[in-house]
Amino acid sequence: MKARTPILFALLAIVVIGLLSSIFIVTETQKALVLQFGRVVSVKEDPGLSFKIPVFQNVVYYDDRIIGLDTSELEITPLDDRRLVVDAFATFRVNNPIQLREAAGPSGIAAASNRLDNILRANIRQVLGSVSSNDILSVDRAKLMQRIRDAVSREARALGLEIIDVRLKRTDLPKQNLEATFARMRAEREREAADQIARGEEAAQRVRAQSDRTVVELESDARKKSEIARGEADAKRNAIFATAYGADQEFFAFYRSLTAYENSLKGTNSTIVLSPDSEFFNYLNSDKLPSK
Fold first, then answer.
1. pLDDT, position 272
2. How confident is the model at residue 155, as a pLDDT?
3. Are strands 30-36 and 57-63 parallel, antiparallel or unpaired?
4. Are 123 and 130 contacting, i.e. CB atoms less than 8 angstroms apart?
C-alpha cells in the first residue's frame, strides 16, 4: 500500500495539473482564440472561465479595447502643388479575431498595426492629393477625414479590425517652404508698409501745400488790408494837412520847418553845413513867431 502512495500522488498531481492547464480566463478587455495545432477551433469573446484540451490546444489573447495608431510625418502634394506635411492618427479595435489571426499570423496586433499604418498613409495621400491645399487647411477638412476613415475602414475589415476614427493632427508646410512663405509674407507686408508710407507722405505734402497756400493768402489779405488802411490814413492826414494849410499858411510853413529840423538833427545826423542866410534857418534867425 505504501508503495502505491507515491504513484497515487503522482497521478493526482498529473490530474490537477491537467485540470488547471485546461482552464483559462478571458477578461473583459480581451478576446481569445483556442487553437489546435495552429487551427482555430473556437472563439471566446465573453469574459469568464473557459476550458481547452491540455497539450493539444493553446489560447491566443487579443486586446478588445480601443487602440491608437500614430503615423509618422507624411509629405503630400495637393492639386495646387503646394506641398504639405501631415501627421495623422487612427483609433481601432479588434472586431474579428479569426480574420486577424489569418491576416496577421502569430504576430497579431503588431503586424496588423503595421499593415494598417500603410493603408492609412496610402489613403491620406490619395484623398488629400485630390483636393487643394486650401481645402485641407480650411474648416471643411472634417469631410476629408471622414473620406479617409471610410476608405481605411473598407480595407481594415480584411484584417479583422474596426476603424473608430481618423484625425489629422497637423498640416504644415515643409520647413524650406515655410521659410520661403514667411519671406514672401514679409516682402508683401514691407511693400504694403512702403505704400502706406508713400500715401502718408503724399497726404502730408498736400496738407503742407494747402497750409502754405493758406498762409500766403492770409498774409496777402492782411497786407492788402493794411495797405488800404495806411492809404486811407494817409489820405485823412493829407486832408487834415491841406485843411490846416488852407486855414493858416504861415503856421503850416512854420510846422513843416520844425518837422524838418527834427528829422535833420535827430540820431547821429547832428551836423549840418549850410549858408547862414539859407531859407532853412528863417525861423531860427527870426524872433518873430507866426501869428495864429
1. 64
2. 92
3. antiparallel
4. no
Spell out the domain ranges in the chain: 16-63, 67-172, 248-292
pLDDT value for 120 = 93
- Residue 78 has a pLDDT of 86
CA gap 209, 206 in Å, rounded = 5
CATH of domain 67-172: 3.30.479.30
Calpha distance 6→48 (Å, rounded): 35
Q: Which cell is 94 given?
A: 479588434
Q: Which residues pair with 127 in a beta bridge?
A: none
List average pLDDT for each run of 10 residues in the chain, which is 292 residues long. Answer: 62 64 83 86 85 82 90 84 85 90 86 91 90 80 89 91 90 67 78 88 89 88 88 84 73 73 65 63 56 48
